[in-house]
Amino acid sequence: MEISRRDFLKVGGAAAGSLLLPVGAAAAASAATFPLRKRVGEAASVCPYCSVGCGVIVATDAQGHIINTEGDPDNIHNRGALDPKSVSITEFGNDPKRLKTVLYRAPNSDKWEVKSWDWATAEIAKRVKATRDATFKEKEGDVTVNRTEAIAWVGGAANNNEDCYLAAKFARALGIVYLEHQARI
Ligand code: SF4
Predict the structure, then answer these.
(1) How far does the centroid of ligand 1 lie from the alpha carbon of residue 50, in Å?
(2) Which CATH architecture has domain 41-94?
């Protein structure tokens, strides 16, 4: 596309005019384009981006869209501080492609099925029990070991101290000996 000298001056003049808009007019134009959305909900969450696991307060509007994130002052990991990466939680959280349900692909199937969280929790419990029952060893020679070597447990660095304490107690009670944590690997 060719732009004549006259077109160029017209565009330049319009741009200069818009720069000289009074502040009130600019604010009104901005409000029309980006209307303020009322916060209707706030939830405490965890930044998903790195192993620090900073606490985030996520605000949503009436449609359930994330409209603001800020550091959670009550979270012991970050005490209200957040780094710039966490700002993209808004974009990531509102992305229509974001998975919000459990997807399950059965053995030998070529399809993903949508399942509920309750189904997934019960299924995991069922499989852990079946594996433990099938592999539990009480003795190794004369020595009592009470363990299964068929299950491993890995904790995430975003788990807090109390989460890890409970997870370790639970895993030991099942007889799991391959117990690790992301922060140690
Ligand atoms: S805010 Fe930054 S440091 Fe904290 S978890 Fe997210 S990416 Fe990691």
Answers:
(1) 5
(2) 2-Layer Sandwich (3.30)
Given the DSSP bridges, would you call strands 176-181 and 143-155 parallel, antiparallel or unpaired?
A: parallel
In this structure, are residues 47 and 93 in contact, taking their beta carbons and an 8 Å threshold?
no
Is the pLDDT assigned to residue 36 strictly greater than 50?
yes
Q: Which amino acids bring their CB within 6 angstroms of ligand 1?
A: 47, 49-50, 52-54, 78, 82-83, 85-86
Supply the pTM of this predicted model. 0.63
Residue 55's nearest CA partner among 178, 160, 170, 164 is 160
Q: What is the pLDDT of residues 92-142, one digit of tens each?
A: 889 989 888 999 999 999 999 999 999 999 999 999 999 999 999 999 999
Q: Give me ligand 1 centre to Cα 100, in Å.
A: 22
